[in-house]
Each structure stands twice: as C-alpha cells, then as structure tokens.
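Morning F.,

Quick status update on the modeling queue. The single chain you submitted on Monday has been processed. Sequence for confirmation:
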Amino acid sequence: MKSILITTMLVMVVLAIYSAVVAGPTGTKMLITNGGGRINDTIERMDP
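Structure tokens below.
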C-alpha cells in the first residue's frame, strides 16, 4: 500500500514539473514556436 502511494505521488510530481516546464506562456513549447517564427521571417527577408 505504501509503495502505491509513493508511486502515485511521484507521478504527480513528474506531471507538475513537465507542465511547468513545457506548457504556459514562457514554456519550452512557446519558446520553440517563437524561435521558429523569427527564423522564418529571416529566411523570407533574404534576397536571392
């Protein structure tokens, strides 16, 4: 019973850390999206 509780708590902590790091306005996903947009703009402005 104790091991199930510990496992459940560990899973909850991992999910909380993941959502804090990846999701949100300052998360990794948003940083990658914004970076890709800037690179796209730079490539579009290049004169061949």
